[in-house]
Structure formats: C-alpha cells, structure tokens
Amino acid sequence: MSTTKSRLAFISLTLMLPLTVTIAGCNRSSETSVFTPDIQPLPQQLTTYEPMTIPADNPLTPEKVALGRELFFDERLSGDGSRSCYSCHVCEKGLTDGLPKAIGAFNKQLPRSSPTLWNIGYHKEFYWDGRSPSLEKQAMAAWTGANQGAKADEIVAKLNALQGYRAQFQKVFGSDATPDNVVQAIASFERTIISGTTAWDRYKAGDKTALSDSAVRGWNIFQAIKCTNCHDGVLLADQQYHNVGIGMDQKEPDPGRFKVSGKPEDTGAFKTPTLRDIAKSAPYFHDGSTKTLEEAVDIMLAGGKPNEHLDKKNLEKHNVLPDQREDLLNFLRSLSVDCTLSKPALPQK
Fold it and tell me: CA 75 → CA 82, 86, 153, distances in Å?
C-alpha cells in the first residue's frame, strides 16, 4: 500500500513539474520585456558662450533627456500618427525638413519653413517671429497646433497606457504623463542638440589644418564685409530680427516680427537663423523661397531686397570677385555639422 502511494505521489509531482517550469519561464520573459530607455551622459556645453539657461522648474537630467528623445522621435504624439518632432528637423537637411514651407499633421501646409534646431537651447525666443518665450511653450504650441495637430489629453492617455512610458514619467517627474511634463521632457532633449565641433570651430580653437585655404579666405571676407553684424559669435546668430526683403514683394507680405511687437520698424523682420549646417538646410529664409546657398549668398551680397523697412543699418551691397564668392561659400560649407541624432527604441507596451 505504501508503495502504491509513493508511485502516485511521484506521478503527481512529475505532472506538476512542466507547469512549474512554464510559470517560471513566464516570469523570466516578463522580466526581460521591461522597457529600458537609452540613457546617455549629458553633452558638453559650448565653452565659448554664456551658460545655457535651464528653467528652475525643469532641471536637465540624463533620464529626462532620454525620455524627451523618445517623445521627440515618436510619431504617435501627432494627431494623425504621421509625424514626430524629428519629421521637421532631420539630420541630412541640417535639422530642417528640406521643404520651402513645413507640412503639418493631416497634411496641412504651414506658412513658414522649419528652422534648424542647432544650439536652440541657447536662444531666448523661438519661432521666426520670436513669439514664444521658452522652449517649453514652443514645444506645446507645435505639438497642439498645426505642426502636429495633437489633442494633448488624448495623447497623454495613450502614453500612460504604455508601461514603458508610464514608468519613465513616474521616475523622472514623480507622476504619470501630463501635457506639461511631456513638453518639459521634449524641451530638455532639445537643449542637448549642441554643435560646437565643426571644421570652423576646430580652426578657431587652434587647429589651423581644419579649414582649407579657400575657407580661411572666406572667413576673412565674411568678417570684412560685416556679415558678423548679424551672424556673430559661436552661435553665428545675433538672436535679433532683421528685414532683408524676403517676401516683401508679395501681394500680402508676411509681417514677421511686427505681429508680435507691434512696431512698424519690425515689419517684415525675422529672426536671424544660425549659419551652422547652412550648406545642408536649403531652401533658405523664412518662406523657403531661395533654393540654393549660392542664391542666398548673392541676395545678401546685394544688400538684401529693397523695401520700405529694409535693415540698411546692417545690410549694404558688396561687390566681390568670383573667386572671393567661392571662398565665402567654402567658409559657409565649413560650418557643416556631423549630425548623430538617431531614433531610439520606443515603448510598445
């Protein structure tokens, strides 16, 4: 009798073993499927410019930047699921989209071109007309406006339904995703989009082999004809607004900065774009009306396009020889950036 009981016990134990192994295997599978963000060290800040201003209520951390990078590349943030922030700021186009005027969600044509994001964290005002006072506000406007056409509360609900996102928001912000902390994360990532190691930067830092002789001559011409009035310093932009005449011959010209400031002298004035990566960011100006770098240079060498509000203080005509023009273009090409932005893995559940 005891032998029979022993055999029954052995059989029962044997039947239970596969179930036990299966349960243990499920646990291991669940553990390995937990989303792991790509957390990287914060990049080095520009050493030849004032420290970047980081909002007190949105400190920069590697974990927040990693989360912001995911959101920046995630098409699911848009109203129609068709586009991400990166869609308008791609590496091979100098962190623009290569279009004369941007195309938003639901295939909506936008009124201006997509500006580059290089060193955007050092800027004080945002958009071509400077209407936004912070990266956070700009990100919110782009996300919920025509750029991405999102209904923020609906998108946030979807993010919180993904454990990979929800866990990150809890760790970084101590709460689930909200419209405000979504744009805080995106703005944090954008503050790490820094360019300070172009051939021109290396030349300025003492490496005299970094630029060709032609580009060095171009840099000297660039200074001599006072392009640095507006494209100055390491940012190669003065963060001011100037009327260079682009679009002023249209039936209804874009008023530019005037719409923000209300000052007549700001009519047709737009924020100076950085020249970093300029060789890759065609077409040019706020309306994308200029197809090539050569054409853009010729417009500026001509002193802009005449109109009532032309910035004659900073613009004047310069006659340069063909070889000098090519030197100037080679200097501008030396400002190209080795862009390494790449789409990270995104939470799927």
Answer: 6, 9, 16
